[in-house]
Design goal:
Elements (H helix, E strand, L loop, with lengths): L5 H7 L1 H19 L6 H25 L4 E3 L4 E3 L1 H20 L9 H19 L4 H19 L6 H32 L4 H8 L6 H17 L8 H8 L2 H8 L1 H17 L6 E2 L4 E2 L2 H20 L5 H22 L2 H32 L15 H15 L5 H15 L8 H26 L14 H19 L2 H12 L4
Antiparallel strand pairs: 1-2, 3-4
Helix pairs in contact: 2-3, 2-5, 3-4, 3-5, 4-5, 4-11, 4-12, 4-15, 4-20, 5-6, 5-12, 6-7, 7-8, 7-9, 7-10, 8-12, 9-13, 10-11, 10-14, 11-15, 12-14, 12-15, 13-14, 13-18, 14-15, 14-17, 14-18, 15-16, 15-17, 15-19, 15-20, 16-18, 16-19, 17-19
């Protein structure tokens, strides 16, 4: 039996330890020192301390990086994982800063603690290639998100959305665990590379087919892909704005990364093909079907929405369909495209939720009518919202445009000479054109519709305005010069053992 070097294990997990220690410090500070202070003050202090803790974890990753593989993938560290973990920590900081002016709960320490615990779960999730650690990390993340979605005790709808999230999540966890148990039975291992070596063969075992389907169901729920998306619209609409922003950004990055890892490493010998005229059994046609349904339903249903949060939820379902295409292609370049796409999508989504939180605080609702003419009241807010919405729509020269372009080109090039996936790209382009309609409806409300006579004044907090300008600048910079981020992704993938 291989001995464990606990000192190396602790060094390897030190960024996660820093995040968890920060969560406990925030909780203790709020309970022992700040309990009698105003809610806004407590949120500002707690979010500030939590952000410093996340920044400390980033410093640890950057300046003392560990490269190791403990016990056949139970815990892994390499440049690619460091890059993804850094992105997760930055997205967590942005989500925390949205909560600085919040008043939706008096349990501030508990709220920030749950965000940090979920972040630690995401970091462990992307830093492993072992089924047991993947499942435990997913459940740590999921249980935290269920509670975060229900944190607004003043809203019965928030509780209802969280209950739906929990019930669907429990069901998806059961499917995922069943699929993992079948994989263990077929391979006698929980390590993804060893599973791939054991299941490789000229034909698919019927149990392996069941494992593929149940695993796709479990992970499809995590990324809100059709037909496992039912929780997303209610959670996006009713959860507190910082919770919804966190669910829509950081958890998506971690979930898509591990989705790619499981399918390309664990099911490496059972891919199949998704050619329009000749489907071959495997996980590729399953994900191609999920991507198709997600792009169609997400974009078409978003047209009918009058709530901006709900519109963003169906938009997220459509974007999940686009991102699934990168997994369908399953190449190193498609992984590069996936990481770029999901991180830039997360930046734009966090920015959009930051704007929503301000408008909701002032008007009490995220209905599209409340955005009528706000450019006359809050020009900075409106300008940043326009940047985020146009990026999500894929308009140049913003990051969303290059993300889609690079992703579609990569998927087309994945099957060189055969164009097997051309039908998926044609569908994605058509649905992108549809999405432009409902995205422009939002900007029409902001810049063209007249301001209502009884409209309440909107006064965005300074911290929120600075955060929005930073996010908008990042979206513009990554669109004008994608190599700012792309070269780091490429170098990390090339120097990592996948």
């Amino acid at each position: 039996m291989t001995s464990i070097n606990y000192a190396q294990l602790l060094r390897l997990a030190l960024p996660e330890v820093i995040v968890v220690a920060t969560a406990l410090l925030v909780m203790a500070t709020d309970l022992l020192v700040l309990r009698r202070c105003k809610t806004r003050v407590r949120f500002a202090v707690a979010a500030g301390l939590a952000s410093l803790g996340c920044a400390g974890a980033i410093v640890r990753i950057f300046y003392a990086p560990e490269v190791a593989n403990i016990l056949d993938g139970i815990l892994i560290a390499n440049p690619l994982i460091h890059l993804v973990q850094t992105a997760l920590l930055l997205l967590t900081i942005f989500a925390l800063l949205i909560s600085v002016d919040s008043t939706f709960t008096e349990h501030v320490g508990e709220f920030i603690l749950l965000i940090l615990i979920a972040t630690a779960g995401m970091m462990f999730l992307v830093g492993t290639q072992d089924l047991l650690v993947i499942f435990i990390s997913l459940e740590l993340l999921s249980l935290s998100l269920y509670i975060l979605a229900a944190f607004n005790k003043r809203s019965a709808q928030s509780w209802e959305a969280a209950l739906k999230y929990f019930l669907f999540g429990g069901m998806s966890a059961a499917f995922l665990l069943f699929g993992f148990s079948l994989l263990y039975g077929l391979s006698n291992s929980t390590s993804l590379p060893q599973i791939a070596a054991a299941i490789h063969g000229p034909s698919l075992n019927p149990l392996l087919v069941i494992a593929i389907v149940t695993t796709a169901i479990g992970l499809g729920f995590k990324v809100a892909a059709v037909p496992f998306h039912f929780w997303a619209p209610d959670v996006y609409q009713e959860a507190p704005a910082p919770s919804a922003a966190f669910i829509a950004s950081g958890s998506k990055v971690a979930s898509f990364f591990i989705f790619f890892q499981i399918m390309t490493l664990g099911f490496a010998g059972a891919a199949g093909t998704a050619a329009f005229t000749h489907l071959v059994r495997g996980w590729v046609p399953v994900l191609a079907l999920m991507a198709t349904a997600s792009m169609l339903l997400g974009n078409l249903v978003a047209i009918a929405q009058t709530s901006l949060r709900r519109l963003l939820a169906y938009s997220a379902i459509a974007h999940a369909g686009y991102m699934l295409l990168a997994i369908v292609a399953h190449t190193q370049q498609s992984l590069t495209a996936l990481i770029y796409y999901v991180v830039t999508y997360a930046l734009a989504t966090i920015g959009a939720f930051a704007v929503i939180s301000v408008v909701e605080e002032q008007t009490g609702s995220d209905d599209l009518s409340n955005f009528n003419g706000i450019c006359r009241q809050a020009p900075v807010l409106s300008f940043c919202l326009a940047i985020f919405i146009l990026s999500l729509a894929g308009i140049p020269p913003l990051a969303g445009f290059f993300g889609k372009f690079f992703l579609f080109v990569t998927v087309l090039g994945a099957t060189s000479g055969s164009m097997n996936l051309l039908w998926l790209i044609v569908l994605a382009l058509a649905m992108s054109a549809v999405s432009l309609y409902y995205y422009l409806r939002i900007l029409k409300r902001v810049y063209v519709a007249p301001l209502a006579a009884d409209a309440k004044e909107i006064h965005p907090p300074i911290v929120t305005q600075l955060l929005l300008l930073l996010l908008a600048a990042a979206v513009v910079a990554l669109g004008c010069d994608p190599q700012l981020f792309l070269r780091h992704i490429t170098a990390a993938i090339q120097s990592s053992i996948l």
